[in-house]
Specification:
- 41% of the residues lie in helices and 13% in strands.
- It is an alpha+beta fold.
- α3 runs antiparallel to α4.
């Protein structure tokens, strides 16, 4: 069984308890025989308020699952997530994700970011940081189309996540950065790029 994973770069947020969100090493592959990779039940949704905004979020979760057919393995308490695609030897494919349950614009954006990886196709875009950008763009676009508020906190999270993703890709040897990712270059690399481009 082959297991493909895509991790969200949400390493700058904090959990509801005020503690930093736990970091998950990007690129890590789960073992095929791991209990984390086995079939399981859908995660139970947390009980939430019955406000109009929450009803919109609940309907959005229903719509995304109906459209993309993923199973939620866990609703996380912190601001991190993961999208997983499992191909089994019998040819079946299972799509899963973990994320916070949407109750705020930021939690909604992270949830849709993970859904975005499945909508785009986990591992379908290279380099990995470009897929991250595509998933974030998909998330924010879907929020706006669904009538959900995209506030400054969501936009800051996308920016910081992409800065982290680009910096990591460069540390790992990425030599050609797609033009869409140039705004997320680390400051020192941006200065070097400008000096090279200058006559």
């Amino acid at each position: 069984m082959r297991l493909f994973t895509q991790f969200v770069f949400d390493f700058f947020g904090a959990s509801p308890t005020g503690k930093a969100a736990s970091k998950v090493p990007a690129g890590r592959r789960l073992r095929a025989d791991s209990t984390r990779a086995r079939r399981g039940a859908e995660a139970v949704r947390p009980t939430r308020s019955n406000s109009a905004r929450q009803q919109r979020y609940d309907a959005l979760v229903d719509a995304m699952q109906a459209r993309y057919g993923f199973r939620v393995r866990k609703w996380r308490g912190n601001l991190s997530g993961i999208a997983i695609r499992v191909e089994r030897r019998d040819g079946t494919v299972e799509t899963l994700l973990e994320s916070p349950y949407p109750t705020t614009p930021l939690r909604c954006a992270i949830f849709l970011h993970e859904v975005g990886h499945h909508a785009i196709g986990v591992g379908s875009i290279t380099p990995r940081c470009l897929e991250e950008h595509a998933a974030w763009a998909w998330s924010l676009k879907t929020m706006r189309e669904s009538g959900c508020v995209v506030d400054a906190g969501v936009e800051r999270r996308m920016e910081r996540s992409m800065q982290y993703a680009v910096a990591k890709a460069m540390r790992r040897g990425l030599r050609r950065l797609p033009v869409e990712l140039l705004p997320y270059l680390p400051a020192h690399a941006r200065v070097q790029t400008q000096s090279i481009a200058s006559p």
